Structures are given as structure tokens and as C-alpha cells.
Amino acid sequence: LFEQILEQSTDEIFTGSNWLLCTLGLTNSGKTHTMFGTPKDPGLIPQCLQRIFLHIGYNIDTKVLYKPDGLENLVQTNMNNLQDEINYRKYIFKDDKDDYRRTRLQSIVQDQPSVLDDHSVEDEHYSIWISFFELYNESVFDLLIKPSAMKKRKALRLMQNNESTVIRDLVQIPVFDLKEAEDTIRFGYANRATSKTDLNEASSRSHAVLCITLITIDEFEEEPTMSHMCKFH
Prior knowledge:
With about 230 residues, the protein is an alpha+beta fold. It is built from eight helices and twelve strands.
């Protein structure tokens, strides 16, 4: 299925194309399995991510030179504007046995301040950013923020930005390899709103949207570029 409908589209993100995959169906019809699959039989999303990271290879931007600003623009990183991402990664990977992933972004900022300020790059490098949200009861909720039993979830606001609509304050975090990406998505998926139905003991009561943002930094281009792959189900 991946080869038939998504392989070419996944490759096109490296040419600056944006695309949306939408899956709709009845409860218990197999949408989640199709999208996520199992470790032995990966779904469409893990296969997309695997192909992206295979394409990137060693050209991952480990210096995190640029970040999306949430308004469809890119901003240069510095010692201060990565602090939120550092904290979110610590929280998402807090149960990880390997402390390296929790502190990886923080180490980059602390150990390479001159590199962050310089923003020089050789050849072509890429960074991957993930955001994950759900539409529930006509409101938007961030799935990368774990709901609190003591506090009502905060609904995010929509904003118009030129010709596009953006979600204000939506969390986006950088991931450096396939496992980080999969674990981030798994963390978000566990935060979805669910309830029991006649067909499913824990059916999702929302529509989830996963967005994978690719930032391309090319030494021969004056400005980096950004493209999106979004999956709605």
C-alpha cells in the first residue's frame, strides 16, 4: 500500500512539495492499523518516516540551525529561543532509560553556542520537526502536551496568516532519528480523547492530525526552505 500511494509523495517533500493524507472510515474499520501498524508490520506513517530518514542519512542538521516559528516562517535559533523545545523533549522522553535523548537538544545549545550563532552549513542538511494535534468537540488540542487530571485542557486558537490558517502556540519539536520520531508520535497518540462504543472499547472520539515538517538548508541557497507532510484521520 505504501509503495502504491505514498512512496512518490514522500520523496516529493524533498522538492518542496506539501501534501495531505486523509483517512476516513467507520469505527473499528482499521484506520489506526493502516496508519500506524505494528512493529512487525509497520503502517503508513512509520514507513514514511523510515523513507525520510533513509533519504537524509548522515545529513541531519544536528546543530538545529533553524526552527519553524508557528506562522509558516523560519527563524534562526539562538541560546534562548530553543528553551521550550528543550523542555518538551525532556518531558516526552522522561521515561527513556537513555538520558541522552532527554538532554540532546540542551547539549547542542550548551556545547555549540558559536555554531548556533554562526549558522554556517556545508552541502545540504535537513531537520525534522513534529507536531500532533486533535480536533475534538470543535476545538483544537495539542497532543504533545499531556492532559492533567487536575486541570482542563487548553484549547488552541486558529489564526489567519496571509493566505493560510495556523494554530497558535502549537508545539513543534525536532527529532533526530526514526526512533525519536516514532516515540514522539506514540506519546501524542496516547493523549487522544477516547470513549467506549459498541464496536470498540477505546474508540477515539477525535480526528488527529500529525504534521511532519522538513527544513532544508542548502549552502547554495540564500534561505532555507520548509515543506510539510500532514496526515489526518
